[in-house]
Amino acid sequence: MRKGLTLIELILSMVIIGIVFTVIPRLIMSMNQSTQTTLKEEAMYNAMAQIGMVLNLPWDNNNTQNSQILSVNTGDAAYDCNTTSGYRIGGFIGGRNCITPPLESYAAGAIGQEADGLSNDIDDFANTDINVTKNCSNGARGLFGISTTVAYVNDPAAAAVIALGTAPLGANQYSNTKYIEVHVGLGTDHRLYDPNKQNCITALHYHSFNIGNIQLNTEQWPD
Description:
The structure is a single chain. The chain is α+β, with helices and mostly antiparallel strands. It has a domain at 10-65 and 110-209. The protein contains one helix and four strands. The chain has a four-stranded antiparallel sheet with strand order 1-2-3-4, covered by helices on one side. A hairpin with a 5-residue loop joins strand 1 and strand 2 (141-153). The radius of gyration is 28 Å and the shape is elongated.
């Protein structure tokens, strides 16, 4: 009975061991990269769904029951409804809810959720975090987060070239423009968008304007 290995068997064993120690780490690295890519894709999809949901809500809490343009205290006067002509810049007679109900009879409210506790308008989602945790087989956890901020910003100048602002106005200052940001990233990097952060994925931006809610008038078809 043979008790040793031939030279050929020894060489083959060394080759197999070399292949194993070369390929397996690469496979593990590739699987980890694939998992990270999948996690980032899922985070992006959820962030897009979040901003889509927010933008489908009324502009302000007072728009949940009243459709007209709301009055603001720090807006550009160029966007005010003209009480004489019934016009608003960019609108038409009777349009943009400038005449009925009574002109700007309701004021825009503060950023944040109202006492009713409902998330039924855009700014109810200000400063909210959504953290998603997944338990892995080895007990480690993969985490990504989505953070939403909403703030009043300066109205764009009524000019040929429109510049949209992003700097929040001061306390108790309300304009015709709300700026929405949705940040998404791994770990805690979602709370403030910084492309230089290793785990930051991206940020979604949108400006929403005080134009009231669209109403459709109906008429009975004549017999």
